[in-house]
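Final report, closing paragraph on structural work. Over the funding period we assembled a curated collection of sequence-structure pairs, and we close with a single example.
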Amino acid sequence: MIDLDFGLKGKVAVVTGGSSGIGAAIAEAYAAKGADVAVLDLVLAPDEERIAALGTTSAGFACDVTDETSAEMAITRVHERYGHIDVLVNSAGIVRLAPAEELSLAAWNTTLAVNLTGAFLLSRAVGRIMLAQGHGKVINMASQAASVALPEHAAYCASKFGLIGLTKVLASEWAGRGSPPTPSARRWCSPSWDARHGTTPRAKN
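Its predicted structure, as stored:
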């Protein structure tokens, strides 16, 4: 039986894409359990009140998950503020829909950059901290698109199939060292990242 009354007081959870949509719901769930939540997102200003509602010990950190320097700096700031990181949830994600023959290279590259490279960069940065401290959990948000082919989802499916592969490799390398990554499947939904950052899900350029 799962104990749903567990608490997370004193734990620090980092949630990418955490200022809106699924990421915000995840951040709120961790905060409700007593965790200090570090919300990482590209744009924080529209959701400052939502982040503040997580509690006085939670905070937002600007981060472009596709940029190595931005990812490293954001995690450094989180670690400096809290002194440790117990959970990383890679929730930032986008979707670009188009038939494969019409999908642009830019749409392909952007999708993989956010959904796969972003998860790698954050996992690597946080993983180093977790391995040094001897404990931690990395949760990568996958999808049914990580196991089945969906029409017009060439880039998205590729990114999520890749994310499962990345998670398995990290688990094989880190599980015995205190930081086992875990994939989390979710059914399809349109990530809110697109609308918030001036892009549309069905993009051909």
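Residues 187-205 have pLDDT under 50 and may be disordered. Helices lie at 21-32, 48-52, 68-82, 105-133, 154-174, 193-196. We thank the funder for supporting this effort.
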